[in-house]
Amino acid sequence: MELQRIAQVLGMRTYVIEEAIQKMQEKYNTKDSGIHLLFLGDSAQFTTNPAFIEPVRGVLDLKRNTPLSQAALEVLAVVAYNQPVTKAFVEQVRGVDCSGVIGSLVQKGLLEERGRLELPGRPLLYGTTENFLRCFQLTSIDDLPPPDGGEASEDDEEPSPEGPMQLSL
């Protein structure tokens, strides 16, 4: 749920809601708790404690998520670090057609359409979703590690599209 919406309904300021959620995290985000409270950008969500995911899936008879392919991880990394981007940009960085991979990532809810670029043909722009943040256990896109895997500094150059970028999990 969006923090701003909670604040609006309760007639409080957003920073008060953030403080309350942080206190609730201290209570619920423990090793033995069945639930965890996560910040996802400007919203919060109760989730199953990762330590208990398998038993919960067993009770609910949920299929295990299939792992993402190397191509899907590469496309996610290109989009996450450069969003919003067009399919053509992703293909230029990777050097191969990405239509199928982007389509499957949109279907899985990891990428979403973010509008259109004001160029001939008006290509779609893609970005990551809250589901992406949840799956990779990120609070916001700013929590991504530097693309080179090291510490970022002001002297760092832009990442080279010669090698595929990978998310560190």
Brief write-up:
The protein is α+β, with helices and mostly antiparallel strands and 169 residues long. Helices cover 40% and strands 15% of the residues. A hairpin with a 7-residue loop joins β4 and β5.
What does this structure look like?
The chain has two domains: 3-60, Orthogonal Bundle (Arc Repressor Mutant, subunit A), CATH 1.10.10; 70-143, Arc Repressor Mutant, subunit A. It has helices at 3-10, 14-28, 53-60, 70-82, 87-94, 99-107, 130-135; strands at residues 35-40, 43-48, 85-86, 111-116, 124-128. With 169 residues, it is an alpha+beta fold. The model is unreliable at 152-169 (pLDDT under 50). The protein has a three-stranded antiparallel beta sheet.
Helix/strand layout:
Elements: H1 3-10, H2 14-28, E1 35-40, E2 43-48, H3 53-60, H4 70-82, E3 85-86, H5 87-94, H6 99-107, E4 111-116, E5 124-128, H7 130-135
Antiparallel strand pairs: 1-2, 3-5, 4-5
Features of the shown structure:
globular; Arc Repressor Mutant, subunit A; disordered C terminus; 3-stranded antiparallel sheet; 5 strands; two-stranded antiparallel sheet; 2 domains; 169 residues; alpha+beta; 15% strand
In total, the number of domains comes to 2
Could you name the CATH class of the largest domain? Mainly Alpha
CATH topology of the largest domain: Arc Repressor Mutant, subunit A
Average of per-residue pLDDT values: 82
Query: Which class do the helix and strand fractions yield?
Result: alpha+beta
Main sheet makeup: 3 strands, antiparallel
Pattern of helices and strands: HHEEHHEHHEEH
Using DSSP, what is the number of strands?
Answer: 5
CATH architecture of the largest domain: Orthogonal Bundle
Low-confidence stretches: 152-169
Radius of gyration: 19 Å
